[in-house]
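Q: Given only this backbone (204 positions), what sequence would you predict?
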């Protein structure tokens, strides 16, 4: 009986010790943001959409200026951060349609759309199997007021697959008149599974 009690006491003590160790191990606080890569003197920095520049410490990533990313980071001191993860996302700009390229209307499921800095950011879901989808942002009439942008998505003959989330970011600074800093209202048209959706947004 004493031996059983001793073994039970050891087991309880072990779990208490493990529990204490787990309490001591604290996960670092972290933030996740869309950001833009820029390279200066062979060093990589990240610019958030609020124009703040983050200085990564001990970064294992190579990218080009202008690339948009999803940045997972832990603040250290000032603008210095520890980068936990960085993932490139589709980065595009406004296009004019031409004979070879017109907006496609394969539907998507919108999760989120917002303007951050000079970028239109989108998170959407669609079925994906194995063929790369084609994505774009078109302006049909640059002289229209307000500006009207059309999100283009083509399945590119991809076979039915499984729902997958996509992250995309388009530079929309071309909507501004040269030298102007005035807000620019615009309309975004997206074909969804529920039909064409119209969203009013503003480039601040």
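A: Predicted residues:
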């Amino acid at each position: 009986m004493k031996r059983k009690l001793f073994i039970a006491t050891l087991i309880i003590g072990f779990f208490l010790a493990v529990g204490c160790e787990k309490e001591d191990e604290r996960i670092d606080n972290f933030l996740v943001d869309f950001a833009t890569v820029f390279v200066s003197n062979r060093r990589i920095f990240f610019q958030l959409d609020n124009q703040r520049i983050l200085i990564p410490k001990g970064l294992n990533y190579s990218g080009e200026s202008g690339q948009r990313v999803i940045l997972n980071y832990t603040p250290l001191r000032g603008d210095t951060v520890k980068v936990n993860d960085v993932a490139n996302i589709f980065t595009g700009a406004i296009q004019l349609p031409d004979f070879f390229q017109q907006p496609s209307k394969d539907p998507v499921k919108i999760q989120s759309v917002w303007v951050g800095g000079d970028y239109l950011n989108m998170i959407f879901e669609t079925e994906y199997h194995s063929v790369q989808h084609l994505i774009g942002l078109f302006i049909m009439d640059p002289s229209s007021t307000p500006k009207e942008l059309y999100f283009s998505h083509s399945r590119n003959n991809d076979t039915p697959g499984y729902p997958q989330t996509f992250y995309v970011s388009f530079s929309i600074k071309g909507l501004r008149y040269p030298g102007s800093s005035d807000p620019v209202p615009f309309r975004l048209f997206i074909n969804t599974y529920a039909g064409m959706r119209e969203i009013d947004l503003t480039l601040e």
